Amino acid sequence: MKMSNETKVGSLTAISIVLLILGFNFLKGRSLTAKTVRYYAVFENIQGLATSNAVVINGKQVGTVLSTDGGVDMRKITVVLTLNQAVNIPVNSMALINPSVLGTTSIEIKLGNSQVFKNEGDTLETIASKGMLDDAFQKVDPVLMQVKNTIRTLDSVLMTVNSVFDSNTKNNIKAVMANLSSTTASLAISSASLQSLLNTQTGAVAKTLENVSEITGTLKNNDKKIDQTLTNLETTTANFSKLNIEKTLLSIDATVNELKNTLGNVNSQKGSLGLLISDPKLYNNLSATSNKLNLLLDDIRVHPKRYINVSVFGKKDKSEPLLTPLADTINAPYTKQ
Q1: How do residues 151-169 score in pLDDT, each as one tens digit?
Q2: Do both 25 and 39 map to the same domain?
């Protein structure tokens, strides 16, 4: 049976359309034979993620991105993931977008440690991924990332310093610098004074050292005299050491004991001296004798004729004798018994 040209063209067109559809789905990552499993993930920023981008678990591609839809609001973008093989995904697994400067953006599923697994059609938890620039910095050189963090810290420090150094602080710093300048000038003057003191020709220290040198020279010149003085001192010390100090002290001790015994006898009314010091009778007798002697002298002075009669024609004084001495408060005051 011979086919017509129209039939051949129609058959070829149909086959081409089927191959086109199958190739398009293949290029989009859709498996033509295997069963696929869908999961969902919601991101605020998909960072250039597109349809047919790879879905990776531990570095192995297990599926592709079927579609991305942000709706009218575009604040939350839903990503549909198709896995072309059976994978147990724990419920605490996280979905993360891995942007790439040189390659294609992919989405990675970080498996959790839970023993409970996601079901088909569940939504995965997501975490915000780092930007493309940060990822490039980490891949090119980790030091650049540290430099970037350091620059950020330095910028914050500079902002803090700028806020601290207000006008009052700047004025205070100017005052401190002015005081520092005056202090430096004072130090210069003090240094000059110290230099003049340390001058080897006219400085006070040089003169003091010169005087010390003269004193030591004098001591050196009088070395023999000093030796003689020390010899004399040594001789005198030797003579003192030869004295019988112990015998002298014993003699003094004996003398003190004798004096102590004598004073003890005096205080104990033994002997004439003890009685003279401690017995009041002698004092009373002496006092009575003194009073009588005063009375006799006063009577002789007042009635001399009673004791001495030198008158030829006179008569004897027959007046009464004095019974008490006359008052004499200047030379011999009378003590009444």
Answers
A1: 878 877 777 767 666 677 7
A2: no
Position 72 in a domain: yes
pTM of the predicted protein model: 0.36
**Residue 330: pLDDT band by 50, 70, 90 thresholds?**
very low
Instruction: Write out the residue range of the structural domain in which residue 46 sits.
Output: 34-129
Q: Which of 129, 146, 163 is where one domain is finished?
A: 129
**Terminal CA-CA length for the chain:** 201
The whole-angstrom separation of Cα 250 and Cα 233 is 27
Residues 25 and 90 reside in one and the same domain:
no
Phi then psi dihedrals of residue 74, to 5 deg = 60, 15
Mean per-residue pLDDT for 259-277?
72
CA Rg, the chain, in Å?
69
A 10 A CB-CB count for 49 gives 20
Q: What is the DSSP letter of 33?
A: S
Q: Which amino acid is at 327?
A: A
Q: Is 323 helix (H, G, I), strand (E, B) or coil?
A: coil
Same domain, 13 and 49: no
Q: What is the reported pLDDT for 36?
A: 84
Determine the Cα–Cα distance for residues 331 and 301; give it in Å rounded to an integer: 15
Task: Give yes or no for a contact between 123 and 41, defined as CB atoms under 8 angstroms apart.
Answer: yes
Backbone angles phi, psi at 14, to 5 degrees: -65, -45
Does residue 314 sit in helix, strand or coil? coil
Spell out a b/e string for 215-236, using b for 16 or more CB atoms within 10 Å of the CB, else e: eeeeeeeeeeeeeeeeeeeeee
State the alpha helices, DSSP H only, in 198-222: 204-221
299 by Cβ neighbours in 10 Å (0-12 / 13-18 / 19+) ranks as middle
The CATH number assigned to the domain holding 72 equals 2.40.30
User: Is position 116 within any domain?
Assistant: yes
